[in-house]
Amino acid sequence: MLKVGVLGAGHLGKIHLRLLKQSEKYELVGFYDPFKENADKVAKEFGYTKFNSIEELIAAVDVVDIVTPTLSHYECAVQAIKSGKHVFLEKPISNTVEEAEGIIKLAKEYNVKGQVGHVERFNPAFKAVKDQIHNPMFIETHRLAEFNPRGTDVPVVLDLMIHDIDAILSVVKSKVKDVHASGVAVISDSPDIANARVEFENGCVANITSSRISMKNMRKSRFFQKDAYISVDYLEKICEVVKMKDAPEVPGDFDMILQNAEGVKKQIYFDNPEVHTNNAILDELETFADAINNNTTPIVTLEDGTEALRVAYQIIASMEKNR
Fold it and tell me: How far is residue 276's CA from residue 278's CA, in Å, rounded to a whole number?
């Protein structure tokens, strides 16, 4: 079993601690949190071993799970990697693209593996349909959340939209050509609502909307491709695949048939895959353990996390230009 330690025992850090404790692929050694009052409380309440410094924790483990505020990701990752430890970094990978590129370079130099916590890649609804998403040409996403003061220290693009950016980049095999975006700061100092139109070199267009001041939560994506429409509800963990094929010469009574202006008939049918319930955070952590043990490529690489961050900053730059 891989020995793992967690940096940061805030809301998400406590979730990681709980899941790593129950995992059969890790041995949870303990955690470090710089806020002594919180660290003492977490250690007392849950019985996890508390370390008094980052250095002590890193020295005691094989894998460092970094669940600290984004501003400290780079510093924590550098310390861990230079000690020869594998790193799991919560999203976004770091505060700047330059920092992210530095993490990639160091990981290669010290021959350690890294994964970024883009958890929607492990959402059971997305996993169920990902293999059916082929060359989508239009994508529409809505990620709306009720207001929560936690996370408002960064723009909504880095807080929420980056989930959808990563998912989109994982299925669109083309480079970004152009970005147009607008955003509005309502409660926070940075934008709380944002919309971006991302155009790819292969002609695909993604329309991405995120809000953290909505009346209800929503996390939905729709993928349109030739002869198929695929929808993913990340929140409800359900998906739908609607496909078209040439209509039979003699349609059945309940067949759904469309005919275009040229007289070509197509049959619409549903091909909904089975969604297997999972814990997405546990899945991402355990597949990272598999990548380390089997010396394979992590599902969400450091490069993936960097590309998502790069596009996020392109969106932020476009919002500031259009403000």
Answer: 6
